[in-house]
Design a protein that fits this description.
This protein has about 350 residues and is of the alpha/beta class. The protein is built from ten helices and eleven strands. α9 links the parallel β10 and β11. The protein is globular. The C terminus is likely disordered.
Length: about 350
């Protein structure tokens, strides 16, 4: 029985989780509400709060798992991508704890963790897992990608955003409407009360299975500026319809490319992952289209969509089985060498 402590600190959530093989024993997350009043995450504040949170969060994760640090077999941690200051807190703590316990360290790509969260097991919960290979649409605030998951540690990115991510589009469109941060969940909530056909926005044509959202954000801003000039109360009077319409447009853009990718690859197991996979409209659309195209659809539980250490621990488990450990002198990275790509080639899993 392999017991792994996972540590996640890539943005503003401090999280620790304990896994026994693939079974989750605990998953503790400390949120930072302070960023809401600034309309976005302030990196310096985030790293300071991580320093305050990481020891009590890890302690609580061990206690909830009913084990001690001496029962652990390895420590997995997020190396990147993310905010460098935040990552440094988690990486430094993981190194120190591993060295003091003489345990192996396992570096984890944050994006890979989102995808592999689909393989987490929970005590007393029956689950169906994707069959390999499967297709995964990874959608978050900083990344939008279509990935062929050939094996647990063998990923191929076949489509990605050429500019902004879907999550960023949600948040920026919410901001120009004066909605609070984070804007994605607010849009999702208001969209349920609106008419998704009320307003029409252009969808970009991008080659292959790639995405683009920068043009949509700009056109939405110009659309609002024009309407507000005609009627200063336009946004307030049409808020639900605006949210429903922009959400439908973003989901349409995401699904058009995913449908193309599924048709080309012939893969029938299709999943979503990442923060935006918590969007109810996207999940409903995936299930709807899955029935049309005969897909086996996998939508993560909401608690595994946002940043969490459980997904880091499960990735650590798969790497532990292959003895893919990292040295103590490893440093975190804010972005992958190829920009927003997660670098899921075999070289990433050599330790």
């Amino acid at each position: 029985m392999i017991k792994i402590l996972g540590i996640e600190s890539s943005c503003d959530d401090t999280s620790a989780a304990v896994l026994c093989d693939r079974t989750l024993l605990s998953n503790v997350i400390a949120n930072q509400k302070v960023h809401e009043k600034y309309g976005g995450v302030i990196p310096e504040l985030a790293s300071r709060v991580h320093q305050q949170n990481i020891i009590p969060v890890v302690d609580m994760a061990l206690k909830e798992a009913n084990i001690t640090k001496n029962d652990l077999d390895a420590i997995a941690y997020t190396r990147g991508p993310g905010l460098l200051g935040s990552l440094l807190v988690g990486v430094s703590f993981a190194k120190g704890l591993a060295a003091s316990l003489d345990l192996p360290l396992i570096e984890v790509n944050h994006l890979q963790g989102h995808v592999l969260s689909h393989f987490l097991e929970e005590q007393g919960v029956e689950k169906i897992f994707p069959s390999l290979p499967f297709l995964c649409l990874l959608v978050s605030g900083g990344h939008t990608q279509i990935i062929v998951v050939k094996d647990y540690l063998d990923f191929e990115v076949i489509g990605e955003t050429i500019d902004d991510a879907a999550g960023e589009a949600f948040d920026k469109c919410a901001k120009v409407m004066g909605l609070p941060y984070p804007g994605g969940p607010v849009i999702d909530s208001l969209a349920k009360e609106g008419n998704p056909e009320a307003f029409s926005f252009a969808k970009p044509k991008v080659a292959d299975y790639n995405y683009s959202f920068s043009g949509l954000k700009t056109s939405f801003l110009y659309f609002l500026q024009k309407k507000i000039a005609e009627n200063p109360a336009f946004v307030e009077e049409n808020k639900a319809d605006l949210c429903a319409s922009i959400q439908k447009t973003i989901i349409d853009i995401l699904m058009i490319q995913l449908i193309k990718a599924a048709a080309k690859t012939g893969i029938k197991d299709v999943a979503i992952a990442g923060g935006v996979s918590a969007n109810s409209g996207l999940a409903d659309r995936l299930r709807h289209d899955g029935q049309i195209y005969g897909w086996n659809v996998f939508v993560p539980e909401r608690k595994f969509t946002t940043d969490n250490a459980a997904m880091i621990a499960i990735t650590g488990f798969f790497k532990f089985r292959k003895s893919l450990f990292s040295p103590l002198d490893v440093t975190p990275f804010a972005r992958s060498e190829k920009g927003v790509r997660p670098n899921f080639d075999s070289s990433d899993f050599s330790g």
